């Protein structure tokens, strides 16, 4: 089974001045995230990549482009989740044809399915692909939450191999303690990554790794894995203000602004998201 690594970056989608995908900057961003920030894998067209405002055609083009440009230097994970099971089934099938290494499926938003509906949604999508599938539980965005029991039930499906959890630490701990050996838990929140690892998480699917990937990797692999908890904690405390400021605006507003400010012209965001106001922009700049 594929190991997606300890630090996965949820990659932003670069846009040009006309709001279209900027392919040159997409290539540059992939190079930067892999070579300079040491990302093990990239999520393409996840919610940080503004998947709600990307067309299916744009998503498939992004998947194929990322696979070709990464050229085996990292794993490419396609964000194909939505709140329409049939739509996600079709997009997942097409994504597999693009050569991606895995699939990320966000919990269906707005419909508010119950736990049985959530189980059947993920089960149905996983059944149409041979690729490894990562669940994405983010209740603050979707208004529904995968329970521990439902997650463990899904973990028994062979190609559902991980979950990205933006959930309380006790939920992460319970999943990690009871899941099959092949099933990994990733923190979906940079600020909780180190505490999550302390209770059994395997790694982090990160936004801040666009800016501090080397330090996050050092915190996780060099220090925490080797039992140097004091140094891991020191780095976590040092990075915490950055983790927090990146989510004071709706994601990915702040991280795109920060990338632009640090010499990586990824452009702005698509409506209904808007750029940071001056006060927000000043605060972001103060942490760079």
Automatic annotation (TrEMBL):
Enzyme Commission identifier(s): 4.3.3.7
Instruction: Provide the leader sequence positions.
Output: none
Has keyword Amino-acid biosynthesis?
A: yes
Q: Which InterPro entries match?
A: Aldolase_TIM, DapA, DapA-like, Schiff_base-form_aldolases_CS
**Pathway noted in the entry:** Amino-acid biosynthesis; L-lysine biosynthesis via DAP pathway; (S)-tetrahydrodipicolinate from L-aspartate: step 3/4
Identify the enzyme class: lyase
Recorded GO molecular functions are: 4-hydroxy-tetrahydrodipicolinate synthase activity
Location comes to: Cytoplasm
Residue numbers for the site described as Part of a proton relay during catalysis? 47, 110
Which keywords belong to this entry?
Amino-acid biosynthesis, Cytoplasm, Diaminopimelate biosynthesis, Lyase, Lysine biosynthesis, Schiff base
Record-annotated residues binding pyruvate? 48, 205
Pfam families in the cross-refs: DHDPS
PANTHER family per the record? 4-HYDROXY-2-OXOGLUTARATE ALDOLASE, MITOCHONDRIAL, DIHYDRODIPICOLINATE SYNTHASE
| Protein task | Catalyzes the condensation of (S)-aspartate-beta-semialdehyde [(S)-ASA] and pyruvate to 4-hydroxy-tetrahydrodipicolinate (HTPA).
Quaternary state and interactors: Homotetramer; dimer of dimers.
The text of the family note is:
Belongs to the DapA family.
Its protein name is 4-hydroxy-tetrahydrodipicolinate synthase
Give the species this sequence originates from: Paenibacillus timonensis
Name the gene behind this protein. dapA
């Amino acid at each position: 089974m594929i190991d997606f690594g300890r630090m996965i970056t949820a990659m932003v989608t670069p846009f040009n001045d006309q709001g279209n995908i900027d392919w040159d900057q997409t290539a540059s961003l992939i190079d930067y995230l892999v070579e300079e920030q040491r990302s093990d894998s990239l999520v393409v067209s996840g919610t940080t990549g503004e998947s709600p405002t990307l067309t299916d055609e744009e998503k498939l083009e992004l998947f194929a482009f990322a696979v070709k440009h990464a050229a085996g230097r990292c794993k490419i994970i396609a964000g194909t989740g939505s709140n329409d099971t049939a739509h996600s089934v079709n997009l997942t099938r097409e994504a597999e044809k693009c050569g991606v290494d895995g699939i990320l499926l966000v919990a269906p938003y707005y419909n508010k399915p119950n736990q049985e509906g959530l189980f059947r949604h993920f089960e149905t999508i996983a059944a149409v692909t041979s690729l490894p599938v990562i669940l994405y539980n983010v209740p603050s965005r979707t208004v529904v939450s995968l329970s521990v029991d439902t997650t463990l039930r899904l973990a028994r499906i062979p190609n559902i191999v991980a979950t990205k959890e933006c959930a309380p630490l006790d939920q992460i701990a319970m999943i990690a303690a009871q899941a099959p050996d092949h099933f990994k838990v990733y923190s979906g929140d940079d600020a909780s990554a180190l505490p999550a690892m302390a209770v059994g998480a395997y790694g982090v699917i990160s936004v801040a790794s666009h800016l501090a990937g080397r330090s996050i990797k050092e915190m996780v692999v060099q220090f925490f894995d080797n039992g140097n908890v004091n140094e891991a904690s020191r780095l976590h405390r040092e990075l915490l203000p950055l983790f927090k400021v990146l989510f004071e605006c709706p994601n990915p507003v702040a991280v795109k602004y920060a990338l632009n400010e640090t010499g990586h012209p990824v452009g702005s965001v698509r409506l209904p998201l808007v750029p940071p106001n001056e006060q927000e922009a000043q605060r972001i700049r103060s942490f760079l």
